[in-house]
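ok so for the tutorial part 2 we go from a plain amino acid sequence to predicted structure tokens. step 1 is just haveing the sequence, like this:
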Amino acid sequence: MADIRVTGQYGDVFTFLAGRPCLDLTTTLQVRHREHPRELLTAPADVTRWLAEAGFGTGIAVDDDGLRRTVALRETVNRLCRRAPRDTDRAELNAFAARPPLVPHWTGAAVEYRGDLGQALSTLARDAIDLLTGPHASRIRECAHPDCSRLFLDASHAGRRRWCDMTACGTKAKSAGYRQRRRMADVPDAPSLGSPRV
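step 2 — the prediction. this is what the tokens look like for a chain of 198 residues:
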């Protein structure tokens, strides 16, 4: 029987809501908490497209091994950020970061990043190390919406942000809560079983 894939609320569109590139990478596996998460990196071309949309350069060549390495880095970062690492995760992250990173190239109008997949993965691994060892490590959150499991960086002043995106997950959750409260208010109180009849 074929696997049933649960479509995330953003479908097959890559989203960049997390506040850090390494966290955005982890969101390419959607609804992780479900029995059948939705994988967005199913072919090497998906990695090329994600890197381009993330601002890491266009046309980075990716083969099947490159897809496997990208997914391996994603899962390593995910476990470390969720504070559920394997014994080898720190060493694996360091190994990804050991390669030279992407090289910024200033065009005058913008900055373009140039390099190969190994350099792109190194840049992502270095971002993860910077996040996990820096002052914002305790601000890594998982979205509170039941249909979302995205990690994001809570950069709010109070440090109490609950949603990966207020216009999507936050609004949906608040609307569901409002509807639930309205239903509860519309239900009349049940009569007491022992109340005397008048």
